[in-house]
Amino acid sequence: MAVFNYTALDSDGHERQGTIDAVSMDVAITALQRRGLVVSFVAPVEKSMFGGSISFFDRVTNADVVMLSRQITTLFEAQVSALRAFRLLAAEARTPTLAEKLTEIGNDIQSGSSISAALSRHPKIFSAFYVNMVRSGEESGKLDETFSFLADYLDRNYEITQKAKNALIYPAFIMGTFITVMGLMMTLVIPRLADMLSGSGQAIPIYTRAVIGASTFLQHYIVLILIVLGLGGVFLIRYRRTKQGAELFSRARLELPVIGGIYQKIYLSRIADNLSTMLRSGIQVLRGLEITSNVVEDPTYEKVLNDAATDVKAGLPVSEALRKHNEIPGIMVAMMKIGEETGNMGTILETMARYYRREVNNAVDTMVDLIEPIMIVALAVGVSVLLASVLIPIYNLASSF
What is the pTM (predicted TM-score) of this model? Predict the structure, then answer.
């Protein structure tokens, strides 16, 4: 499969540019003509030295989808037709890739496809949750409200996920700095000081001998250690991509102190938010569970939701189906039971989503406030102990003269 750049005229006489995947240039031209385009130029995309296209970094981000949803909401509220809306958005797209995808969606709509069906042909950009929400909006005749819901949902989901990720960047930086400083001292500074102490002929304390021994080991085996760490990292990455590995990493992540609780609240917030948004849009709870399991992005909770969906199919209420799983807190199960009894499940889940978002924000803020002084103190103590183990014998040596 190759990628081709093309320039063509659409049925309105407007020039369109983009890329298309095809096995050959003839197939690419045929595919473009089927879309009702008059092709004026087709050429293969040049490859970079890494084998990919030059537009390797030209991808559609979550922020693009949020902005796109808000723009569609505005256009639909202004009574602009779906075809015209996607044509306008394609012309003003931020990246060529997004422009190409929006143009393809517009062409599919022009050929008689529904908006949800056109979106479903681009699963890397529009998730199953997104497509089903749009399908529900088409059935209810409230597409503008649906896209507004989607923009708000994606915004909330992105914000809470990024906040948790950004909170881990600082401690990772401090830890990396600590390891780098200790490594440089053990391989560059300590050996020179060790030579000085060894040449003095004095007895060396046991803690100093331990530091010198560790330094000697690193000097001789640093390359081997780096190779082992590299191979281990590659193995873990490949193992994590397997189903068994993903489940194991998921369990381990959720059981970590502090961080595990944050991840749990993120997934619970996502589940409640997804279900709430879909229920308020008219999607049945069973279908909502199935869709949410595909977009929760955690194998543990994906299994929980799939098992719950199976139980709901067998006739159990949602609250009872989720009660079987320890990953779902009792408060959430109790609130969902109230929602079932009152027929107000969507509002109850929306309340739970807000609660867990607030919990995540508070937990992340607390963790950041605590990590900064702890990591700085740990770094200072580690370096101080290392220096003291060598400088104290040097001081004693100097005092003997």
Answer: 0.66
